[in-house]
Amino acid sequence: MIKPDIYSTHPLPAIHNIPRHYTASAVVIAHNHILLVHHRRIGAWLPPGGHIEPDEMPHQAAQRETLEETGVEIEVVSVPLPSTGDSDAFFLPSPLCLHSVKAVEEGIEFYHIDFAFLCKPKYSAVELPVVAYSQDVISARWFALDKFKEVPLAKNVLEVVELATKTPCQ
Fold first, then answer.
1. pLDDT given at position 4
2. Which CATH class is domain 17-80+93-166?
């Protein structure tokens, strides 16, 4: 049996043979603004997020990391999913996309495979939620969607935000 070339339908580059770390991020959009953090180690702006802990699901990691890094409580925007009523087999909120960025930490190269979730502030308000950033980031703030490109962005941020603003769930 001939196996189909799974990479022929997507233009993947040559992939490095390096370890993978799984992360989750929150693309938080409200009132025509996006919430970004200035990451201490990366030195650029990106959506809040971080590594998925062993005891959490990807969307929970995005929510936890956003709260830790910005003080903003969020909820994931996803298509409605059926409930199975079964704690052993269930559906998870759909990410906006999965993307990968090569990283180097303490001299070790690896990919961050990121579940990027489209999100909104948990509590609907007329104004943007106040941001109270943590020591994990240099800064955190809301950017107008027509102005966020004016700051140095981490890899894939521009493309992920473009996907978010084009999604029908937005």
1. 52
2. alpha beta
